[in-house]
Amino acid sequence: MGLVRLRCSFGSADQKMIKEVDFLTDTGAFYTRIPPELAKELGIKSAVKMKLMLADKRMVEASISLAYIKIM
Predict the structure, then answer these.
(1) What is the rounded distance in angstroms from the CA atom of residue 62 to the CA atom of residue 65?
(2) Geometric angle at alpha carbon 21, from 14 and 65, rounded to 5°
(3) Which of 5, 8, 23, 60 holds its CA 20 to 30 A away from the CA of 70?
(4) Where is 22: in which H helix or E strand?
(5) Residues 35, 3: contact at Cβ < 8 Å?
(6) What's the confidence (pLDDT) of residue 2?
(7) pLDDT computed for residue 56 by the predictor
(8) 14-68 pLDDT per residue, tens
């Protein structure tokens, strides 16, 4: 696992709003997290809330959505 910076296209699942953004990626992560401001700007709304377990075994509630991501 490692952290890598890259530029990608990110947007709403229907691809109506797409923006190029720089991401700090975690190659071992299962979910992608974006700032709430970016989600609002792209019109990405929470689809469901789920309980997730963090690496330190804590449980947290997170909003889950669908989005478009194009890398390289």
Answers:
(1) 10
(2) 40
(3) 60
(4) strand 18-26
(5) no
(6) 67
(7) 94
(8) 888 899 998 887 777 778 888 889 999 999 988 899 999 988 999 999 999 989 9
* Entry pTM: 0.71
Q: Which residues pair with 60 in a beta bridge?
A: 52
Place of tokens 């989600």: 39
Amino acid at residue number 19: K
pLDDT at 25: 79
Domain range spanning residue 58? 3-71
Cα gap 64→49, rounded to integer Å: 6
The token pair at 39 is 């989600």
Q: How many other β-carbons are positioned within 10 Å of the β-carbon of residue 35?
A: 9
Number of domains within the chain:
1
Per-residue confidence (pLDDT) for residue 50, from 0 to 100: 93
Whether 33 and 69 have beta carbons less than 8 Å apart is answered as no
